[in-house]
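Re: the 761-residue chain
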Amino acid sequence: MIRTLQPSFQPSVRGLLSVLLVLVTGLGACDPPGDAPRRGFALLAAVAAGDFAVGVEPTAGLAFDHGPRPARITADHERRPAVLLPPGAWSWRGRVPEAAQFQAGAALAAPLPGAVLEVTVTVAAGATREVAAVARATERQWLDVGVDLGHYAGRWTEIEVRATVTVGGATPPPDTLIAWAPASIVGESGQGGTGAAPNVLFIVIDTLRADHLSCYGYERPTTPHIDRLLAERGVLLEDAYSQAPWTLPSVISFLTGHYPGEILAPKIGAFRFPEALPTLAEQMHQLGYETAGFNANPALHDGLGFDRGFTTFFAPPADFAWFQRHADDLNRRALPWLAAHQDRPFFLYLQYLDPHDPYHNPEIVNGRSPFYPDYGGNLTGTHVHGVYGGAHPLEQPEEDVAHLTALYDSEVHYVDRFVGQVIEALRPEVLANTLIVLTSDHGEELYDHGGWKHGQSLHQEQIRVPLLFRWDGRLPAGQRLGGEVELVDLMPTLVAAAGGKADPRWVGVDLLPALTGAAPLPRRPAFAQHLSFGPLRATAVLDGQKLMAFDRQTPFAPVDSVQAHVWQLDLERFPALELFDLKADPGERRNLLTESAASAASAADVDRLARVIHHRFQAQGGGLRLAASGVPVGQRLVARVRFAAPPEAVETFFLADADAVAWEGDLVRLEIVGDPLTGLPQRGLVVEGENLTVTAVEVTLEDAPLGPEAVQWSAGERWPEAAGDGPALQLWQPKGRAVQPVAEEDPETRQRLQALGYLGS
């Protein structure tokens, strides 16, 4: 436990000083001759530059009794670059800059059972000497203290920082070391000015669907701070889409600028950041930014490369107990870092876990949300996963759904407060040159289409996410932009804002011209796929028209009761193909491909959006694609393809329910029934193997042989368009993946995903 008389993130210690003020004659630092400049310091930078004294008391600057040694130290799962010193005191002398804040963090460099660490900060100026902060830790973790030096501005001041360690009341071992990180005096930064590269504050709120923010039109006041500090003072994107409905593929996607299916292996346990692709944090670090990442989601960890590029990094362990922590815990770690780094360009990434299930936080009392306090049922926010997996059926569906929705909304309301706390912790001159972006990795289903949580569906509640930007003086306040954008657009946008160059491999686009009003928002389709357990699911959205495809034909064997329940539910509620007009039907209640709703316009929209899906899957490379097209309604096309060697694998590619496939030895048989309402215009198989040489092809329509013109061969980067309107079989060899994913599963990733319910036990 930590006892802190002066919390590190509070802006003032004036009340504490009035109690602890001690006047001592002769102990204060005396003003040196001349007019020394007012400046602060950063401990790590000073040590790296050799700008310090050892064993003597210099007129100005840093002084140590022992030589400092740089290191990287992890305490309480948070890694910091640090300076190692024995217990004792070190000091700084100089003129304090305007509006200055002293910030210091300390931890035991190595575990020491039973140890107590105490940090004391003493400030002296002239005849005045005061104990400004005292903090104590009884567990090994980072102990952060902060002192407001505003009333010392311009005065010659000495700051002494002392660390003492006891073990059971006794002296610690002689090799005990203290890790100091950070330690700095930050004054007015001079970061203002529209010509300077901005600081970047990147906020991700896990599991946050766009339509439950009040600034997106939700009837409950869930996000007052986001509304006031971002929506009213920046640009809100109305239709932003995640590229996957759950954390790992989504975050890997927007932090690399690539669609997840193009860079990830098929096995979920093998998901990780490819070594060949730089992450956003690495890009920002190369551009000269101080980088820090604080993440509350146990699915993301350094073993999969999430920490790359972050000098300071926190991620929780694979322990379900960490789901009991909330946004306040993340801010407790992040705010001291922010206080210590506002005098230089910084990139700060924050990923809050709220409002991920279980739905509970200090605002929820006796299991009831203030938004719905009169619920009379038995469900609590801890039952959400059981409801999702069928273990807790809804006894009073209408009331239960309303209750769980209110609990989710309370989670949103709770995290909103801490987002506001971070933004308001920025000094005014720093805020004036900080680009803030807020989004989510995915949304959350609240029985909208008969299911719960996230990861399986591609309906709006799971992939439409908030996206807001604020950059004072550069972006217009209160602007709202319609039109589809994707989270893969974040990488090129933020790197461009920081003055970096675009990587031609990125699939997203720079949104800055549209955000500033210099150009219209690019008209580009949005794409997502589910990348969770079960067969392929994909969607494409353009101009408010949305096509969803679900490969129900691929055999799937659930590994536990949760997967079995969810899979059966998905088979019952999702057809193979759905088309929605989101402008007229934002809740996706009316599938335009039903017999009563189908039209020529619907067929044209299917054809247009299907090309997007084909184009995105072709970039995932591999295998030989067999696709039938132009099959007349109600008729049956049968293709028999023989290979020089038996294929290693045959996978379906969005077949309709009436289609069929058979594979025996070196012969693959594909059967497609023409029906524009139930399957993609081009659909078929992906055949994998070392030797995919085709030795014979036979195609029939209603048992009548088709001529050689019905067999179309192609290879290359683009999905082939069907030649003509007649029935045809296309054999297409796509170009291989640009980035080869790692195929081996990571045991730690599997453990974490099992704890989260994404993988069966």
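Residues 1-29 have pLDDT under 50 and may be disordered.
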